Amino acid sequence: MPIIDRYLIKEVTLTLLAVMPVLLLIFLSNRFVQYLAEAAAGRLPSDVLWALLAFRSISVLSLLLPLAFFLSVVLALGRLYKDSEMIVLTASGISPLRIVQTIGAAGVVMALLVAALTFYIEPWANAQTNQVRKRAEAASEIRIITPGRFKESRQGDHILYVERLSPDLEQMHNIFIQSRQVDKVNILSSQHGYQYTDKETGDLYVVLEDGNRYEWTPGGSDFKIIKYTKYTVRIEQKDIPVQSSLRELTGVDPLLRNLDAGAKAELQWRFSLPISMLLLAVLGVLLARTTPRQGRYAKLFTAILVYVIYMNLLTVSRSWVEQSVAPPLFGMWWVHIAVLAVVAVLLARQMGVRMPLSIARLALRVRT
Known about the structure:
Elements: H1 3-40, H2 49-59, H3 61-82, H4 85-91, H5 96-138, E1 150-152, E2 158-165, E3 171-181, E4 184-197, E5 204-216, E6 223-235, H6 253-257, H7 261-287, H8 300-322, H9 333-350, H10 355-367
Antiparallel strand pairs: 1-2, 2-3, 3-4, 4-5, 5-6
Helix pairs in contact: 1-2, 1-3, 2-5, 3-5, 3-7, 3-8, 5-7, 7-8, 7-9
């Protein structure tokens, strides 16, 4: 590999190693706050937060890598323009097309990496995320409550309050349970209790010891107080079978065998991410062109805006395919064709090709 090509790739790679962790940290911090909110609300156990965050960081790499590489190209080449190194390269016979070819070759390698992430690694990470979530949902509701707070069951028919839990989270102290049965209201109170899960059915049971049961009909005069030594309450918490979705299917064959609109949209989306990586790599070279006075960050806002528009168009076209609004043959390909046309126009301008003048000359030749 010529020294110029190595130098350009080195500059882009060093910038990528600086940009990628920042983007990943921004995304993960936002996702971590959401997981903390779910854990604080009692919808998610705190011991699965890091596992969810790890799998989520893997599944988002296919989206962040094109953006990170695109920005790295713009920033790295922007520095070369600022320091007048690009002027020296141009004077040495290095044309814009040569730079496009060098960065495009690196973009092909990155596109292959994104393809591996999109077709194999990301579906695996999505499947692991769903399994962790569903295992947590199928686990005991008592394990995800905070002592001293009221907790409503998923079905909405029980309200549970536990003042204190033992270190192993099995024994409960000062328990309060309210349940509704048709037109009656039951309140159970106990000083001690424990929980267990039926191994055959997966149902969760809470066993109260030495307490009272209060039963009455709202608006009526009937009121009962029943003392008990042991009272068992079943809270419906059966294991939820893990079902695979389109986002969890690895490879191309399973999606090709599925002929519905959702599978077609998912397949086109997975092909679109590597294609976008390659197009953004070339587009980054063309957008990075600045004057020394403008600085290396002059085109940063433009690059971010272009990426946002590109991804939003892909997302909209994906929803059109899923909803059968647009035919699959049209699908998301028109977005890539539009970006490719922009790349061709920008490259022609930087190469000094004047499209209208060329067309005029061709028309003149035809007349003569």
